[in-house]
Amino acid sequence: MSSMIRPNPTEPIGVPDAGAGPLEAALMRRPGQPRALTGDRPTGPLHLGHYFGTLANRVRLQDLGVDVLVLVADYQTIIDRDSPESLPRDVEELVADYLAVGVDPGKATIFAHSQVPALNQLMLPLLSLVSVAELSRNPTVKDEVAAAGIDAISGLMFSYPVHQAADILCCRATVIPVGRDQLPHVELTRSLARRFNRRYCDPSAPLFAVPEALLGEAPALLGADGQKMSKSRRNAIAIGATADETARLVAGMRTDPQRLITYDPAARPEVSNLVLLAALCLDRPPEQVADAVGDAGSAALKRLVTDAVNERFAPIRARRAALVEDRAYLREVLRAGSARVRVLADETLARVHERMHAVYS
Q: Which of 247, 261, 307, 350 shows a CA-CA span of 20 to 30 A to 236?
């Protein structure tokens, strides 16, 4: 028993440098050095919240020269649902969303969870380094359970943060672009990297770099029901929505009785959300957009939002429509990206086995 590797739940989990200041400056100085990992579950079409929250930033990072890995987290679709027959199509359309917004497979790597076995094998030793109590305290897991509306937590959902840590560490990513709600996952990953290094590595030769979170200034957009725009809530404007669908969804978004349009997120969240959406699409300050609408009322504001969204996303939607007609190309992008990451992950797992004295040939 004394030889068992035990997690240390009393070890303080280091808070990552989540600011866009020092880390952003380092990326600008040496963009080719860091590797960024990010991704999404293929559980529905990506929407405007994704675009302004993360997708545009992925394109920016790749164009800076950062090695960007984009994960299609197909295995993570089963944490709260059965694997549907639509999964192949869902995965293809997620790849189409990525390519349509500007993720370039010549600069970035798009890959699928299920196609890289080493990612999932690394999860086992990492699970030995974390306590049940730590996992039960993770606020993101609690939020996922609440959003999914499920009564019982599966073992996979419970270990979801460790699964993400395995993705990050197996790919040897050093920069993790996240929203604030994902910071606990990065904190756990950092802790697991340190714990593995301490237990299995010479202090002068750690295996895992401790990754840093890159927290951008992403806006939190509200959906048609006044809650955060989300795939699971079905309240979002999809990137690939038609102009008519966009008009219908915007028309149904909440406002308030005041005719004068102002930008005041605290006092007028619904109206301010529409103002912000127009401002993001028009690349203008939200206060300027609000002043332009003035006392014309909510109907005028919604017309402005509809026109701004449709104009901003028209070329993206046209590219996406062409991409989904070429399913073979989408699968080839995924195949090539997964092959590249398999090599990277296999190398990492081999090093893990060496440190764990689990090499028998």
A: 261
Q: Is the confidence at residue 9, as pLDDT, over 60? A: no
Measured between alpha carbons, how far is 149 from 83 in angstroms, rounded to an integer? 17
Scored b (16 or more CB within 10 A) or e, 140-170 reads bbeebbeeeeeeebeeebbbbbbbbbbbbbb
What's the token pair of residue 257? 């009785």
- HEC string of 104-144 equals CCCCCEEEEHHHCHHHHHHHHHHHCCCCHHHHHCCHHHHHH
CA 66 to chain centre: 17
Render pLDDT for 322-334 as a digit per residue (tens, 0 to 9). 999 999 999 999 9
> Do 188 and 136 touch, CB atoms closer than 8 A?
no
Q: pTM, whole model, 2 decimals?
A: 0.87
